[in-house]
């Protein structure tokens, strides 16, 4: 199958198990996947971006802030290093550990600043 075609609809994204597919073939008989950093279509749940993994499934965890959309950061939600998720940036006065966690990108004394 030539790149860019999918006459049988085998590469059409319909849910979170394949939302990172482009909807076309890559030219070698495999469904093409969206580029790393794409939100997916439908949008991946959990605010995760596609990571270019073959098969087109949405990621289920983040590794770095780059795996999350603007206004969100990757953080350990279980406080034990086992579960990472894209969390919303924190407001001024909220606790923080690093500046990327704050709306204003300011974390001083473990508190988000203005």
Protein described:
- The protein is mainly beta and 114 residues long.
- The protein has a domain at 65-112.
- It has no helices and six strands.
- The protein has strands spanning 21-25, 31-33, 72-76, 84-88, 107-108, 111-112.
- A two-stranded antiparallel sheet has the order 1-2. A two-stranded antiparallel sheet has the order 3-4. The protein has a two-stranded antiparallel ribbon with strand order 5-6.
- The chain starts with 20 loop residues before the first strand and ends with a strand.
Short description:
It contains no helices and six strands.
Q: Keyphrases for this structure?
A:
mainly beta; 114 residues; two-stranded antiparallel ribbon
Task: Supply the number of helical segments.
Answer: 0
The number of distinct β-strands equals 6
* Estimated structural class: mainly beta
Helix content estimate: under 10%
The coarse overall form would be elongated
How does the SSE layout of this entry go?
Blueprint: E1 21-25, E2 31-33, E3 72-76, E4 84-88, E5 107-108, E6 111-112
């Amino acid at each position: 199958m030539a790149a860019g075609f999918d006459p049988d609809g085998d590469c059409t994204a319909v849910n979170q198990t394949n939302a990172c597919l482009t909807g076309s073939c890559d030219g070698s008989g495999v469904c093409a996947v969206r580029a790393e950093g794409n939100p997916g279509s439908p949008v991946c749940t959990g605010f995760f971006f596609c990571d270019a993994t073959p098969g087109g499934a949405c990621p289920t965890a983040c590794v770095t802030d780059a795996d999350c959309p603007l206004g969100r950061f990757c953080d350990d939600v279980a406080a034990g290093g086992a579960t990472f998720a894209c969390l919303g940036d924190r407001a001024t006065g909220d606790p923080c550990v690093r500046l990327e966690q704050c709306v204003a990108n300011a974390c001083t004394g473990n508190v988000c600043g203005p």
